[in-house]
Amino acid sequence: MADIMFAGIGGQGVLTAAKILIEIAAEHGKNVSWTSEYSAEMRGGIALCRVVVSDEEIGSPYPDYLDVLCCMNEDAYDKYVSDMREGGCVIINRSVFGEKQFPKNVKVYGVDAMEIALELENQRGLNLVVLGAMIRATGMMDVNEFADTLEAYFNKKGKASDKNVQCFMMGYEKAEKMQ
């Protein structure tokens, strides 16, 4: 079981990243739950999603501690890193982070999500880059199966684009363990 949080601000694709993860995990036979919180602003307000992915029945969608924290911005990291479980994994969007001292009890992976999304001419793909980094950092699912299902997800939505899977794969390939 993995207790996961995606956190950032509105407009960064926080809710979409979580929704993609639960849909793909469910298609691969996992039990999933999702809860979200966001402020009234359409863009720029706080946005977060709690996701639980498990092989077993899920008792509560509100874990006491997180196994995985995906931070789209530095404020999200500052606010939620204290909720991490010992040995958990934090993924940061290095594009918007300053110098940080990371806690010793967690693994930290960084990816230059904004730069990758812009390089691939898919600014809205920032969340997919972070999702790719999360799959690399956690090994939660096979990367190729995830990428194939991601492509099918966007095809089903009528938003097929090679750039979506490219963002995901670049996030996977470029994620670096920082601690």
Automatic annotation (TrEMBL):
Transmembrane parts of this sequence: none
Pyruvate/ketoisovalerate oxidoreductase catalytic domain ranges (all copies): 10-173
Swiss-Prot/TrEMBL keywords: Oxidoreductase
InterPro entries: 2-oxoglutarate_synth_KorC, PorC_KorC, Pyrv/ketoisovalerate_OxRed_cat, Pyrv_flavodox_OxRed_cen
Oxidoreductase keyword on record: yes
Signal peptide: none
Domain of life: Bacteria
Keyword Oxidoreductase: yes
NCBIfam families associated with the record: PorC_KorC
Protein's name in the database: 2-oxoacid:acceptor oxidoreductase family protein
Native source organism of the sequence: Blautia parvula
Phylogenetic lineage: Bacteria, Bacillati, Bacillota, Clostridia, Lachnospirales
